[in-house]
UniProtKB/TrEMBL annotation:
BP GO terms, sorted: division septum assembly
Record protein name field: Probable GTP-binding protein EngB
UniProt key word GTP-binding: yes
Entry GO MF terms: GTP binding; metal ion binding
Recorded family membership: Belongs to the TRAFAC class TrmE-Era-EngA-EngB-Septin-like GTPase superfamily. EngB GTPase family.
Organism this protein belongs to: Aurantiacibacter spongiae
Lineage: Bacteria, Pseudomonadati, Pseudomonadota, Alphaproteobacteria, Sphingomonadales
Entry's Gene Ontology cellular component terms: cytosol
Needed cofactors: Mg(2+)
Amino acid sequence: MIENGSEEALAEEARRLFSGRVEFLLSAPQLKFLPAGDYPEVAFCGRSNVGKSSLINAVTGRKAIARTSVTPGRTQELNFFEVGEPTRFRLVDMPGYGFAKAPLKVVERWRSLVRTYLRGRAVLKRTLVLVDARHGLKDSDRDMMTMLDEAAVGYRVVLTKADKIKASELAATCERTATEARKHVAAYPQIHVTSAEKGAGVDELRAAILSDVRQ
Ligand SMILES: Nc1nc2c(ncn2[C@@H]2O[C@H](COP(=O)(O)OP(=O)(O)OP(=O)(O)O)[C@@H](O)[C@H]2O)c(=O)[nH]1
Ligand SMILES: [Mg+2]
């Protein structure tokens, strides 16, 4: 499945990389502040409060490198993190979508920033579309997935907060989400199930990210 060696070797390399240098690079409130596209990037996107920043913390094994909050709309810029010494790739923490309480003007600004970045970034190797395991796909996720299909940006659907529901419900949501993902041309058929809280699925996601940035 993987080009250079076995899956275990990939997982081991991913573990080593993420336990080494991970550094916040910059926060871009507008497109003109984006860093030069010097390294491969993987972007974390999804509805407000789905757990994007928490999953970046879990994947990087840092408690608070990305800022989290119980209040939706915490992340309002594109936040870039560098991984590796020397830098191998960057993770991007995106502002959330589907946040009904934010002023329309603000929503529009985030939306346009996120879309323009996702559509036009040559170094973007993969997008992770995070979906709350308790709720499954919402129309705002479907809109995002369709936009990524059209932009031909490959993405993985990642269920978050898996610790918050029963295993049986989780299995059902996972199945439903996979069925729907198969209809999207740019979606990976396999769904990732994660818990930033408990660490479930995090090793697998690290390995997936490394294999994505290698391509
Ligand atoms: N139980 C549980 N709670 C989680 C998990 N991941 C995130 N949370 C909680 O969900 C809330 C939102 O998490 P964030 O990581 O800030 O979410 P976000 O998607 O970055 O939110 P915005 O930046 O506002 O779009 C916080 O209270 C987290 O503690 C998880 O795996 N399990
Ligand atoms: Mg956030």
